[in-house]
Specification:
286 residues; alpha+beta; Tetrahydropterin Synthase, Chain A; 3-stranded antiparallel beta sheet; 6 helices
């Protein structure tokens, strides 16, 4: 009896020592990897928030964050890694561009096992190696089709939008959700190229200003022409109005003169469509 009890205690202690417990905090999922047995490999279903028991002798638990993460690849050794991690890519002319890049992303919890099975590394290592390479390659592909002046100028935003779209398409199957991609520094170029671009932009601005000036002058001239046409039309309408008024005023004056000069006698001759007839003089009645 005592021997059986001792064996039970030993088995219980062995179970305690051979069983581990991992905690998965909020914002993370766990991945269980089996080293032995029929379930050897990465379990397809991620582990949710909470505590999970595992066998530390044959199983390993990895934690992957699913909240939004932001990684900055910069030239400064005081930000991010202690080495220069700025992105370098070339324009259509072969001009090299150096710039600090920021990427924000999240992980699809359901695809984290696939991500781990593909790379077999923690998320920090995946970001520092594979993800950085994907961003750099996408920048090179897109920038190599664009003139340096466009990249430096008004189409910098279009470059970022195109690269982001490429990354979403390529990284989504691995569980990455690309939320934001941006340049967090000025584009750094060779000084000679920088001076050339600055001069080109200045010349373009001057040409645009001159063109705008010509358009403004033409607009003012056209405005004066339209004003002159409008004034001439107004003068014609005023003249026509005055002429009609003068005619009516003259008619009224003629009528007034006729009334003033009438002696009160009716005319002795009358006519219409028939021949004129002489009427006898009228004698006042006695």
């Amino acid at each position: 009896m005592r021997t059986a009890r001792r064996m039970g205690i030993l088995l219980s202690l062995s179970f305690v020592f051979l069983t581990g417990c991992a905690s998965i905090p909020p914002g993370y999922v766990g991945i269980k990897v089996n080293a032995l047995g029929r379930k050897k490999g990465v379990e397809a279903k991620p582990i949710g928030t909470g505590r999970v028991a595992f066998n530390p002798m044959t199983e390993t638990i990895y934690r992957f964050p699913t909240f939004m993460q932001t990684v900055n690849w910069t030239m400064s050794k005081d930000e991010g890694a202690a080495v220069d991690q700025a992105m370098r890519f070339n324009s259509a002319e072969g001009a090299q561009i150096n710039v600090d890049v920021s990427l924000a992303f999240t992980l699809d919890p359901e695809k984290v096992p696939v991500l781990f099975q593909k790379f077999r590394r923690p998320i920090d290592e995946i970001v520092a190696t594979n993800l950085r390479s994907q961003v750099r390659d996408a920048l090179n592909v897109r920038a190599s089709t664009m003139p340096i002046v466009k990249i430096y100028g008004e189409e910098k935003g279009k470059l970022l939008e195109a690269v982001k779209a490429d990354l979403i398409k390529k990284l989504e199957p691995d569980g990455f959700r690309v939320e934001m991609l941006s340049f967090i520094s000025d584009l750094r170029l060779d000084p000679k190229i920088q001076d050339s671009i600055t001069a080109s932009i200045a010349a373009t601005n001057q040409a645009v200003a001159a063109e705008n000036k010509v358009r403004e002058s033409k607009a003012l001239a056209q405005q004066k022409i339209e004003e002159a046409k409008g004034q001439a039309e107004a003068n014609r309408e005023l003249q026509a109005s005055l002429t009609d008024t003068m005619v009516r005023w003259q008619q009224v004056q003629n009528q007034k003169d006729a009334v003033t000069k009438w002696d009160g006698k009716l005319p002795t001759v009358s006519g219409d469509a028939t021949p004129m007839i002489q009427l006898p003089a009228m004698t006042p009645a006695k």
